[in-house]
Amino acid sequence: MDHIDFKDKRVLVRVDFNVPLDENHQITDDTRIKRAIPTLQYILDRGASLIICSHLGRPQKKRLENGDINVEKFSLKHIVNHLSKLLGREVIFCSSTVGGEAKMMSDRLEAGQVLLLENTRFHAEEAKSDPDFSAMLKVLADVYVNDAFGTAHRDHASTCGVAQYFKKEEKGFGLLMQSEIENADKVLKSPKRPFTAIIGGAKVSDKIKLLDRLIEIANHIIIGGGMAYTFIAAQGGKIGNSLCEKDYLDLANKLLEKARENNVDIHLPSDSIVADQFDANANSKVSNSHEIEDGWMGLDIGPNAIMAFDKVLKESKTILWNGPMGVFEFEKFSEGTMATAHHLASVTMEGAFSLIGGGDSVAAINKAGLGEEVSYVSTGGGALLTYLEGETLPGIKAILT
Ligand code: AMP
After folding, report:
1. pTM over 0.85
2. Average pLDDT over residues 126-147
């Protein structure tokens, strides 16, 4: 934002206020709002007024029975009081996103005032990056700042389309966007070695591109969670009823082969906590991950795997973590994920750089109460993965072109 003159300008800021709300519309986790505050404050400090826009949930998908948008559930008005508290100033709410009311309210803004527009996704044009809708957003402001890293992988009107109407000196990235990219680049472009990626979660199919790319840059890849069993099955292991994507066995072998060629060590869990059903209170026991009996399924990594993975982490200087090591939502099967969170915090204290990204591993590190003990917790799930996969994010491209 250094190149932008903010004085007396009306600044349209795209933030990611897509926060979870409970049934009473109370915010249950305000991390995303808090992470946008430095950018909002930076712009206000330079004598501008703010026009803030964001999406909240997927109102187009979750329409009411009569086809209407559920305005009450997805309205950004629920954010107003909390945002006002965090900014320490009044936040004016506009119950439309574009059009006459929004234009009139933005025209009246004076330096230091803050206007929050209604959910951008109340308009189907948002997700189509519709040029007319983008132009209607543009007329509200003199300057555009994108700080919504969490949606930077989407080509939407408020994240991309609108940017084309601003000149280079009238648009820029917010501080959150900047730090997200800087931290992702510490892993991607100049990792201190050894660099270890911990990849978990349910499916291999979701993470193929990521694994393929990591095999080109990491020294070690630890694979845990449900996806580990597809790799173990591909190696000829007996995995009982564990998750297995049969269509991906060949691909798993190809990835293992590519890792061998690139001298990347792949670490799979030698043992697992297996359960007799997918249930929080299922019977459980420790099993060799290659010899899981029929009727049993691996729902967490076992004690030997935890120790072996920790040994790799202790030698690492850069660590990326995406995806839980087991079904951590069930207390009984959360130990591998919680131990990983603790080990990550302790190697960070010893000087390693640790980046956590992707919804569930962020939830896990927060569940362990260790969000402050790692180097960087990304606000972007899909956006971070897309960036790590080597793609240019549309939200970034739109500012640079
Ligand atoms: P992802 O969104 O791909 O990172 O997957 C996260 C989900 O994977 C979480 O909801 C976990 O409960 C689930 N998961 C992790 N390990 C396993 C496992 N061994 N079996 C089944 N599901 C798992």
Report:
1. yes
2. 98
